[in-house]
Specification:
- It is built from 3 helices and 9 strands, in the order ββββαβαββββα.
- The chain is α+β, with helices and mostly antiparallel strands and 145 residues long.
- The strands form 2 sheets. Strands 1-2-3-9-8-7-6 form a 7-stranded antiparallel beta sheet, with helices on one face. It has a two-stranded antiparallel ribbon with strand order 4-5.
- The two termini are 29 Å apart.
- About 4% of the residues have low confidence.
């Protein structure tokens, strides 16, 4: 195995992120990352209404109720809603869920293969085609941060 390093630069060519990929077998590379605010990418099927936390009355006013439209950490259904959202985007890209684990997705075209696994908001990718991996990453970045 070997490490492949990449430096992300901003529009002024200043480095702002250092990335490292591990090349496992010379022809397969893996990537990993987090989906920022993953649960907030999932819409609730119907709004949930909450009473504000004590101490917020001076900011919100008394007697106000909050309407929650997005999944949040701590809400029982959030994990499932986020998984459904992530799964739908993978299907739109042309990926299928693995039979043994529906949190692992695969796409194969000819000799190119990409496998993506997700655990809550942590994503691991492995594949043998850099262009396919970048295409998936760009597609997902268009939907999630």
């Amino acid at each position: 195995s070997k490490a492949v390093f990449k430096v992300k630069v901003d529009e002024n060519n200043n480095p702002y992120r250092h990335k490292c990929r591990i090349v496992a077998r010379g022809f397969q590379e893996s990537d990993q990352g987090d989906v920022k605010t993953a649960y907030l990418n999932a819409e609730l099927p119907k709004p949930i209404y909450l009473r504000p936390q004590k101490g917020l009355e001076p900011i919100l006013g008394t007697g106000k109720i909050l309407e929650l439209r997005k999944a949040v950490y701590g809400l029982g259904a959030s994990g499932r809603l986020w998984w459904q959202t992530f799964t739908e985007k993978n299907r739109q890209f042309g990926m299928t869920s693995m039979t043994a684990d529906d949190c692992v997705f695969k796409i194969q075209t000819g000799k190119s293969i990409l496998i993506v696994a997700i655990i809550v908001d942590y994503v691991l990718m492995i594949g043998n085609d850099e262009a396919l991996r970048q295409k998936w990453f760009d597609f997902m970045r268009g939907h999630f941060e």
